[in-house]
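Reply to dn_fold:

You asked what the input looked like. This is it:
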Amino acid sequence: MAKLFTSILSTFFVLIFLSTANGQGFKRQQAKVGLDLSPEAAAERWVEFSSSKLGSDYCMLFELIHRPRKSEEIKYVGYMFGAERTDGLYMRLRIAPASHPSNSEEFIMKNSSKGCDVWKFKDGKFVKLSKADWLKPLYDGLLYTPFDLLMPYKFWNASYIGAGRIGQAVHLFDLTSTDFPFDRVRVALTRDFNVPAQIQLLGKNSKKTANLGSVKKVDNLWFMREASVKDEISKDKDILRFTHARFNIILPKSIFDEVSQKNVKLPELKKL
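and this is what came back:
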């Protein structure tokens, strides 16, 4: 199994970096589903995933296509910064409709085993959001939420369900919390690389599924190029795709301070 180099994001998703030092690269395996893990092996896999580290500071541009089942698709664009600091993993994100790029929303997020936080830019400053607000869309009408990007369930107690298959061999874990209004989060970690192939939020009247789409190698790192999330009730879908990136950089800490200003300057980026 390739060792996880880092995982940080989204849709319930993970922006995935895999260590090229393993000499394997990324590929979907077509092997048969394996046996269930022992309790000890399952616990070890979850700890490896939840304690993954970031390979480098980064900046990326993305496009997000919202595809409602019964109306025309809407395109959003934005940027994302990320870095690991001594007190946790940080992300800063800006998103706006492609047709009105000045009408943006901006967030700062912190992911840590000691606690997670989300700030949103309001009235000229970043304001800390309540956990209930983590479940609201990044932009009105979208499926993506701060919760999806923050992935606080990485630090919840995980119950191993067993081996399965979702296009490839996986191991399934369920996670629950009394802080959020859904029954459980189900994470399918790939057998061969121990990264999420699929993540679901499951509630009594709701079901939201995120899937890894594709990966790409840039600056000697593998990362998630594309992912999607679907509301299984409405059948609406969001597709997240990164278009430009820059890794192996050092970002100033001020980018992730809640006292920082909106619309920070972007470094020179490479088209993907």
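The CA atoms of residues 25 and 222 lie 7 Å apart.
Hope that clears it up.
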